[in-house]
Design a protein that fits this description.
Elements (H helix, E strand, L loop, with lengths): L6 H4 E3 L23 E2 L2 E11 L6 E10 L2 H8 E6 L5 E11 L2 E4 L7 E3 L9 E2 L3 E6 L8 E9 L10 E5 L8 E9 L5 E5 L6 E5 L2 E9 L19 E5 L4 H8 L10 H13 L3 H15 L1 E2 L1 E2 L11 H7 L1 E2 L1 H14 L3 E7 L19 E8 L2 E5 L20 E4 L8 E2 L6 E11 L8 E10 L1 H13 L1 H15 L3 E12 L4 E10 L3 E3 L6 E6 L18 E2 L4 E10 L9 E6 L3 E10 L2 E10 L3 E2 L4 H12 L2 E9 L2 E4 L3 H32 L1
Parallel strand pairs: 1-6, 3-13, 9-19, 18-20, 26-33
Antiparallel strand pairs: 2-3, 3-4, 4-11, 5-10, 6-7, 6-11, 8-10, 12-17, 13-16, 14-17, 15-16, 21-22, 21-24, 22-23, 24-25, 26-27, 27-29, 28-29, 30-31, 31-38, 32-37, 33-36, 34-35, 35-36, 38-39
Length: 673
């Protein structure tokens, strides 16, 4: 199959198919109904109709928009239709401009240009999809632009099986949104609803079922920050012709079971197997080999992104996407005596997969399921090179996965919900006796699990020196006089998957006068300040995404040049899956401050937004401030007038009380004589 096409080959102008039913729409809507207005356009109608009665699936789309502004005219005048030339073709039925009673049709095949935009190329994905582009001339404010196209074609791997989603988009609604499904009665297409889409109107004509959904005047909904990606928030219809998850797995599994390894790759597998007789060691070393040697690049043409390339092609090019990497890993693992198969997952909707109908259209990533010693591991050969043993190598995906095996019964849970201690940050700070004395900072940072992998990857790409310089720049934001006192030291335990960094700084001019000049301030930045993002408002509809469960701790010890006074504090804040402890202690010349943040779940309910915000805002108060004063050239703790009065009062009281005790004792002594 070639990679070049012309518009004449793939884009045709044709009359409206007989099966398409265009109903009248409202060209004028109430002024109060503004939900469908955005970007200078009023979206009057979106109408999709799907015909499954023939060997080739036909999906018809019609959009109608009224132009309200010049910016809206620019948007409406540019018509784009994206499709996969490997198995799809387009018919354009009309591209009309309605101006009062005048109707101007601009649909001509030679007016379209085919563009290979490759919008995902920056993500290293080349899918060969094309964009048919038409620029409609002379679109004015007040015009209605009415476009109708039909896309024909089936995903080759699926044959005629139908799997799709229809979303009534409440974040970008049309005034009218319609969907129609024509199916022969012998085809069992199941529909599942989410978030109360409109009820269907069903009609049967002979051996054909005609089902229609229509929503009018849908209200716009605002997108809330930190909404979990797996939440379905809009009224949605899911369609699937798969009866079970085994149907999906059995259809795709044969494409991932290419047992013939290229000779050069087979030699690498045998070498690893000979070097590592233990099966668990083989599994993780083979994972690292694939991650290191196979660079990521997705090259998916004409197969809907569902199947890998041949093993010899993958290895000869030394690049591949997730499907290719999983195929390489599975083939090598089986040669080494391991029980492995490819598995489909979703990086966005993994936590919701068990709510969906069995379908091939719910996945966007491929990994590996490995079984060993009665345990299941989920490995990602496309991840950056990972450290650790098989038992502690980081498993990055969540929710549910579908093993591609003929024996698959259903989805399997991936696990990985434990809160791992990924960061411990310690600053030991020695403050000199004078304002001009340098402050010595000894910093130790322990990264573990995926945080350690991320640091190693950063070192590999940018070098440790760039990381050390970035750390110094961060310190200089608060202490401009900071300088490195020694090179950064790295201790890397790859089996435990931990990496420890030791950094030493000398800081001059760290004491700064307060605004009123009455005291000096020493400001220390704390490590966890940006970990949670405060949210606006006091009420919320959707859950709050927290990110991967994790534990993070930070500790500061300040060694002061003189005795410091204070009571310290202990603060505990909690939500259902988030806990935060902030503690400070003062003990003579030592002042300490510690924080602990534990996140035990991927999300919490929106009703807890206030408790969440209390923690997030407290974290943002990430400055630890000591106040001092200069007395006879030396640093002393700054005390308020009230505190000084209390200290003086106590001193006088102790003197007076002691004097009376002394007089009493002397009087008793003289009385005995």
């Amino acid at each position: 199959m070639g990679l070049e096409w012309s518009a004449r080959d793939l884009v045709h102008c044709a009359p409206l198919p007989d099966w398409v039913d265009h109903q009248a729409y409202r060209s004028e809507i109430p002024e109060t109904d503004v939900s469908c207005v955005a970007g200078g356009l009023c979206r009057l109608l979106y109408d999709s109709q799907l015909d499954l009665r023939n060997s080739e699936q036909a999906w018809h789309h019609r959009t109608v928009q009224r132009v309200l502004t010049r910016e809206g005219a620019e948007r409406a005048a540019h018509v784009v239709v994206e499709f996969d030339p490997g198995y799809q073709r387009i018919e354009v039925h009309f591209a009309r401009v309605l101006r009062g009673a005048e109707v101007i049709d601009h649909a001509r095949a030679d007016a379209f240009q085919l563009l290979r935009r490759e919008t995902n190329l920056e993500r290293l994905i080349f899918d060969g999809r094309l964009t048919a582009s038409l620029l409609i001339p002379d679109v004015r404010i007040g015009d209605i632009v009415d476009l109708a196209v039909t896309v024909y074609g089936n995903v080759p791997v699926l044959g005629r099986r139908h799997a799709a989603w229809v979303v009534f988009d409440s974040f970008n609604p049309c005034f009218e949104h319609r969907h129609r499904l024509l199916r022969p009665l012998e085809r069992n297409v199941t529909a599942k609803t989410f978030n109360d889409p409109p009820a269907p109107a069903v009609a049967i004509d002979g051996q054909t079922e005609d089902v229609r959904w229509q929503m009018t005047g849908q209200e716009r909904r605002a997108i809330e920050a930190l909404t979990p990606p797996w939440e379905l928030l809009r009224p949605t219809l899911q369609f699937s012709e798969f009866e079970s998850w085994n149907d999906v797995a059995s259809l795709l599994a044969p494409f991932y079971e290419d047992a013939e390894l290229p000779p050069a790759l087979a030699e690498e597998v045998d070498r690893l197997a000979g070097a590592h007789p233990e099966l668990d060691r083989r599994a993780v070393e083979w994972l690292r080999f694939v991650q290191r040697e196979l660079r990521y690049f997705a090259f998916s043409l004409g197969e809907g992104g569902l199947t890998p390339r041949a093993l010899d092609t993958i290895w000869s090019t030394r690049f591949g996407d997730c499907k290719d990497a999983a195929t390489v890993y599975v083939a090598g693992a089986r040669r080494m005596g391991l029980d492995a198969c490819a598995a489909l997952v979703s990086t966005t909707h993994g936590n919701s997969l068990n709510r969906f109908l069995p379908s091939s259209a719910v996945f966007d990533h491929c990994i590996v399921r490995l079984r060993l010693d009665a345990r299941t591991y989920w490995l990602d050969p496309t991840a950056s090179v990972q450290s650790g043993t098989l038992k502690n190598v980081f498993q990055p995906h969540i929710g549910w996965g579908l093993p591609l095996s003929q024996e698959t019964v259903g989805l399997e849970e991936l696990g990985g919900g434990a809160a791992l201690h990924i960061l411990h940050w310690e600053d030991d700070i020695t403050v000199g006796p004078k304002v001009t004395s340098p402050v010595i900072v000894r910093r130790k940072i322990d990264y573990s699990f995926w945080a350690a992998d991320a640091i190693r990857n950063r070192f590999a790409n940018d070098g440790p020196s760039a990381f050390a310089q970035a750390m110094l720049r961060d310190l200089q934001e608060f202490w401009p006089g900071a300088a490195e006192a020694a090179p950064m030291e790295i201790q890397d335990d790859k089996d435990r998957n931990t990496i420890t960094l030791s950094l030493n700084y000398e800081v001059r001019d760290c004491w700064k006068p307060a605004d009123d000049g009455s005291q000096l301030k020493l400001v220390v930045s704390r490590a966890l300040g940006a970990e949670l993002q405060p949210l606006p408002g006091e009420r919320r509809e959707s859950d709050i995404a927290l990110g991967r469960p994790r534990k993070m701790t930070a500790f500061i010890q300040l060694n002061m040049p003189s005795r410091w006074r204070g009571d310290g504090w202990l603060l505990r804040l909690e939500a259902s899956a988030v806990s935060f402890i902030d503690r400070s202690l003062v003990n003579g010349r030592t002042v300490t401050a510690s924080q602990e943040l534990v996140i035990d779940a991927w999300s919490i309910a929106g009703a807890e937004v206030q408790a969440y915000n209390d923690i997030a805002k407290k974290l943002r108060e990430n400055l630890f401030i000591l106040t001092g004063s200069q007395q006879f050239g030396r640093i002393r703790q700054w005390l308020s007038l009230k505190t000084r009065f209390l200290i003086a009062f106590r001193l006088i009281w102790y003197v007076v009380w002691g004097g009376w005790v002394l007089i009493f004792l002397i009087s008793i002594l003289f009385a005995r004589r």
